[in-house]
Design goal:
The strands form eight sheets. This protein has a six-stranded antiparallel sheet with strand order 18-19-20-27-22-25, with no helix packed on it. The protein is of the alpha+beta class.
Length: about 450
C-alpha cells in the first residue's frame, strides 16, 4: 500500500532500515509474498535476503528464525521493524536507534515507545519504571489494548507509552531470552532452521515452521524477561493498522475529509474515501470510512475502525475466498484479474511481463480459451508451440500440458475463459517452473 506518499509502506521501511543501519536487511514474510516483495524492491542499492514462511505464525517464531539466521554472521545487533508503520521524523528515529544499539550491546532487550497523543484503545501500552542511560527507562509492565477510560488515565499519568512493536537487541540476547522463557519454541525453531534450504536470495523455511506456536514476541518473551528497556519518543509514528489510521496519515480538506479529487463530497465532515475506479459520492455524512475496492465495499463509523476483524472472522467462518484471494493477484510472471465468474465459467485478464512465462502445467477439471489482446504469446500445448498475436485465440483442452510465454519487449495482455466443473486456483499440476514454485 502507498500511504503518506508515493512509496509503498514496504519501500519506506526498507529505505529507513538502510538509512539507520546501512547494511543488508533481512525480510521475513510469507512465501506467497516473495515475488511481490522482490518486484517492489527491485533497484534498491542493497538487495535483501528473505526468510520465507510457509504459514504465518506471529512475531515470536519470525523473530526467532531471524536471530538464528543472523547468528551465522557472528553476533550482530538486530533492529526489528514491522512493515506497516509510518515514521515522519526519521532523524529522531535514527537517534533513538543509536541509543537503543548502545543499550542492546550491553545485553538489554530494547523497545521503542511512542509518547501517546490520545487515549487510543487499539494499541498496547508500556508502563515505564526507573530511568536508565540514553533517556531509556526500565519496563515496569505491559498492558494489552485497554478500554477508553483506562487509556485516558494512562495518558494523564504520563509514565505510559504506546508499544510500537519495534525492537533492538543482539542476536545472542534474544536467543538466550527464548531459551529461558520459550524453550520449546526455540528448540523447534532450531530444527526448522536446520532443515531449511537456501535458494539464492531466499531461505525457504521447512514445513515444520507451520507447527510452531502462534504467539507474539511480546507474550512469549518481552512480558517475562527482566532485562527490558524502553526508549520513549515522538518520532511521528503511526501504526497503519486500521482505515482510521490511514485517513489520519493523509492531508484533510477544511472539513476534515480525505478523498481523491475525482470523488464528490457534499455537506459532509470527517469522511474518508479510498477507491480505485468507481466514483463515490457522499451527501450529508459525518465520521465515516468508505473503502471501495474491486474485492469488497466497506462502510463503517470511524469509531469502529478496529472492528473490521469481525467482518474477516465471519468471512473465515463462511470459508470465503475473499479472505485469501484478491480479484487482481500478483504472480512472478505478472498479474491476473478475475473479471467475472459463475457456474461452470471464469473470465480473467492476464498480463505477462516481457520475457516471462507461466509454468508448464495442466488442469484436471477445466479447459481454457486464450484470446490475445496486445503483445504476442508463445503457446505450448503438449508437443506443439504456436505464436499467437492480437485478435487470435487458442484452446487448451482439459488435461493438456501447456505453457504461456511472452517473447516480446512489451506486456502481453490476454483474456482467458475457463470452463469446467471446478475452477479453483489449486487445480494445477506443475511440471517445470522458472520461479522455483512447487
Amino acid at each position: 500500500m502507498k500511504v503518506g506518499g508515493d512509496k509503498s509502506l514496504l519501500t519506506q521501511v526498507y529505505e529507513r532500515a538502510q538509512l539507520v543501519a546501512g547494511n543488508t536487511p533481512l525480510i521475513v514474510t510469507n512465501s506467497d509474498y516473495y515475488f511481490l516483495s522482490a518486484n517492489e524492491l527491485r533497484g534498491q542499492r542493497l538487495q535483501p535476503h528473505y526468510l520465507l514462511e510457509p504459514k504465518g505464525r506471529n512475531t515470536a517464531p519470525a523473530v526467532a528464525m531471524a536471530a538464528l539466521w543472523a547468528r551465522q554472521f557472528g553476533d550482530p545487533c538486530l533492529l526489528v521493524m514491522p512493515a506497516d508503520h509510518l515514521i515522519k521524523d526519521v532523524e529522531a528515529f535514527a537517534a533513538a536507534v543509536k541509543h537503543a544499539e548502545s543499550l542492546a550491546r550491553q545485553g538489554s532487550l530494547v523497545l521503542f515507545g511512542i509518547t501517546p497523543t490520545a487515549p487510543e484503545t487499539g494499541f498496547g501500552y508500556i508502563e515505564m519504571g526507573a530511568g536508565l542511560e540514553h533517556g531509556a527507562h526500565a519496563v515496569r509492565r505491559f498492558v494489552e489494548k485497554p478500554d477508553f477510560a483506562t487509556a485516558e488515565s494512562y495518558v494523564n499519568q504520563g509514565n505510559y507509552v504506546w508499544n510500537s512493536g519495534m525492537f533492538c537487541f543482539q542476536a545472542s540476547a534474544i536467543l538466550a531470552a527464548f531459551e529461558e522463557h520459550a524453550p520449546e519454541l526455540l528448540r523447534r525453531a532450531k530444527a526448522v532452521f536446520e532443515d531449511s534450504g537456501v535458494d539464492g536470495d531466499r531461505t525457504l523455511l521447512s514445513s515444520g515452521f507451520a507447527e510452531l506456536e502462534n504467539i507474539s514476541i511480546d507474550v512469549a518473551v518481552m512480558e517475562r524477561a527482566q532485562n527490558i528497556a524502553v526508549i520513549p519518543g515522538d518520532i511521528g509514528w503511526s501504526d497503519i493498522g486500521s482505515w482510521s489510521a490511514v485517513s489520519d496519515a493523509l492531508q484533510a480538506d477544511s472539513n476534515g475529509n480525505t478523498a481523491a479529487a475525482h470523488n464528490i463530497v457534499i455537506d459532509s465532515t470527517n469522511v474518508h474515501i479510498t477507491n480505485d475506479e468507481r466514483l463515490v459520492a457522499v451527501i450529508g455524512l459525518d465520521n465515516l470510512l468508505i473503502i471501495d475496492t474491486p474485492d469488497a465495499l466497506l462502510v463503517a463509523d470511524k469509531r469502529n475502525s478496529q472492528d473490521v476483524r469481525a467482518v474477516v472472522q465471519q468471512l473465515k467462518l463462511a470459508d470465503s475466498d475473499i479472505v485469501k484471494l484478491h480479484r487482481t493477484a500478483a504472480r512472478p510472471w505478472g498479474t491476473y484479474t478475475v473479471l467475472e465468474e459463475g457456474a461452470g465459467f471464469k473470465i480473467k485478464r492476464i498480463v505477462v511481463k516481457p520475457g516471462a512465462s507461466l509454468s508448464l502445467q495442466k488442469h484436471h477439471h477445466r479447459s481454457e480459451h486464450w484470446v490475445v489482446v496486445s503483445g504476442a504469446a508463445n503457446v505450448t500445448v503438449d508437443d506443439q508451440v504456436t505464436l499467437v498475436t492480437p485478435n487470435q485465440s487458442t484452446y487448451i483442452p482439459i488435461g493438456a500440458r501447456h505453457r504461456l510465454e511472452n517473447p516480446g519487449v512489451t506486456d502481453l495482455i490476454m483474456i482467458e475463459v475457463q470452463c469446467g466443473n471446478y475452477l479453483g486456483e489449486d487445480d494445477i499440476v506443475r511440471f517445470s517452473d522458472n520461479y522455483g514454485r512447487a
